[in-house]
Amino acid sequence: MKRETRNTWLAAAAGLGALAATTLYLNRRGSYDLAGRVVLITGGSRGLGLVLARQAVAEGAKVAICARDADELERARQELTQDGAEVLALVRDLTSADEVRGLVEQVQRQLGPIDVLVNNAGIITAGPLDHMDLPEYEDSMNTHFWAPLHAMQAVLPAMRRRGEGRIVNIASVGGKVAVPHLAPYCASKFALVGLSEGFRAELLQYGIQVTTVCPGLMRTGSARHAIVKGQHKKEYATFIIADSLPALTVDAESAARQIWNACRRGDAELIIGLPAKVLSAFHGLLPGTTANLLSWVNRALPGPAGEAGDERRRGYESESEVSRSWLTNLTRKAEKQNNEV
Known about the structure:
- The chain is of the alpha/beta class.
- 50% of the residues lie in helices and 14% in strands.
- The longest helix has 29 residues, at 134-162.
């Protein structure tokens, strides 16, 4: 019995050692230095984009951020420059190809050639399929597919001439596995994953590394800006609680560090969070079974709500006692930290 117990402990120790070694390997830093580099981050005024900008500035990068909201951008700029960093904040509508091209041109004029492009800007609409109309799909595709495409096309000529560059496309595990109540979001993220992987395959020969990032649930504080349809309060409560659970979610700072490490290494893909990795792997092996299992998850989610459910509301317009409860404390904390309020 003692020998069996000893062997069990040895096996457990070996397993933990292997897990620790794997974790260290996957989180290794890489040799690409951000100091002195020009970094453009779309959607950089709040949430994950702002956290990425903080970390880039801390390493000595010259950072440009863009978003639609001028007040948000100014708050982010003031924070990022408080220690003397060089930061350019530009108000732009990324769904306009002309504005994206103008954005890249202005960054290059004021900061220099763009070394790293991070396509981070995003929107999310949650609700039953019955309430998802054509505008939801168009908005998602414009933000998650066309905007990154226009940005990549704008930075590529200079990157090709220099023979180097980094592009990071923030997709989602929803771009690998279609999740119920997020049809427009998932469809557009699937498109971004395909676009990103296609660009990597053809741009490596020019020294340009394209990294596709597929995070699972992250505690960025952005839930309040989500668009909800259907039973608005129930839909939002479900969404924000899922976004707050510590066992299922990753904090934004950890996610950002992993993203920058993947960028430095020039990784082809980064999936963030154990649940996202498990779900993606299971779907890769058994896609039909995964879809069938998710259909049961769908039955537990709030159902359609008639004509009233067609109305678009933001998360902060759909609060309830449940969404304001202790279950969402981690997300509320992230809201304050990441300029989401």
